[in-house]
Amino acid sequence: MEKGNENCYPVLMLPIILTSVFIGLMIRVAYVLYHSGKPLHTSSARPFRTLIILGSGGHTAEMLNLIAVLQKDRFTPRFYVAAATDNMSLQKAQMLEEHLICQAGSEKMIKAAYFMKIYRSREVGQSYLTSVGTTLIAMVHALWLTFKIRPEVIVCNGPGTCIPLGVAAFLFKVVGIRWSSIFYVESIARVRKLSLSGLLLYKSHLADQFFVQWPQLQRKYTRAHYVGCLM
User: Fold this and answer.
1) Residues facing 115 on adjacent strands
2) Of residues 158 and 133, more confidently modeled
3) Mean pLDDT on 192-210
4) Residue 21 has what DSSP assignment?
5) Count of other CB atoms within 10 angstroms of residue 54
6) pTM score, two decimals?
7) Where are the alpha helices (DSSP H) in 56-127?
8) What is the enclosing helix (H) or strand (E) of 16?
9) Residue 31 CB: number of other CB atoms within 10 A?
């Protein structure tokens, strides 16, 4: 009888262990959500590793206009990431960085920027059924890229690629690998409602700071910050 009780002991303990792990995970998630959105620690003059997420068309144009006025010495090195099927965005980012090097008049900024690609979660017109598999692939790739880059700051403005990268950054916060602050700037084209990517980041609280360029959006989404027209 005693031997039988000993065999049952690990089985009885398993639900307790799993429950404890689940509760601990929920406490950690609550901690991350509570502390997300707090200002960056700027007492030190050290730079922040910065991940910049590019999207096709207007997304990239707006983002590069924003990066052009960024304090380059505080947000470096800069890692530009675009979808694998986007053939133009990284080229435009490289042109911007080359222009910055020419302005600096030296070669010291050559290693300040890196350019990478990520699998796209869903192509335009792709069925939702087949997009499940591509989304999983994009998520795994996002985890690998985020682990490789380990950014402290993530800047994005609406392309779909910001969702898997944002989720990966949040998971790394939860497990304690790297604390990344996500800054989301909604496109100026979004006047009355958020983009799908923006809405997902806003509702899920993944974005630490959320900026909109139209006052009616700020009134509708009260956690957003109205900053006027940036572009």
Assistant:
1) 80
2) 158
3) 92
4) H
5) 28
6) 0.85
7) 58-68, 89-104
8) helix 2-35
9) 12
